[in-house]
Write a structure and sequence with these properties.
single chain, 434 Repressor (Amino-terminal Domain), 4 helices, about 0% strand
C-alpha cells in the first residue's frame, strides 16, 4: 500500500488523519508521513485498512 491508497481509503471512510491516528494509536505526524510516502506503511496497518475498506468502517465500531 502506498500513501495515495491510504489517503483514498481514509477519505472513503470519511475520517480525518487525526481520527486514523487515534484508531491506530500512532501519531498524527506518522499518518501524514505515510500519506506522503515519507515512511513505509506497516503491513498490519495496510491489512487493517484494506479489511475495513472492504467491510465498511461501521462494522468495526462498537455501539
Amino acid at each position: 500500500m502506498n500513501g495515495c491508497t491510504l489517503r483514498n481509503i481514509r477519505a472513503q471512510l470519511n475520517i480525518s488523519q487525526e481520527d486514523l491516528a487515534r484508531i491506530l494509536r500512532v501519531s498524527l505526524l506518522l499518518v501524514s508521513e505515510w500519506e506522503h510516502d515519507q515512511q513505509a506503511i506497516p503491513e498490519y496497518v495496510a491489512a487493517y485498512l484494506e479489511r475495513v475498506s472492504a467491510q465498511g468502517f461501521d462494522s468495526f465500531v462498537c455501539p
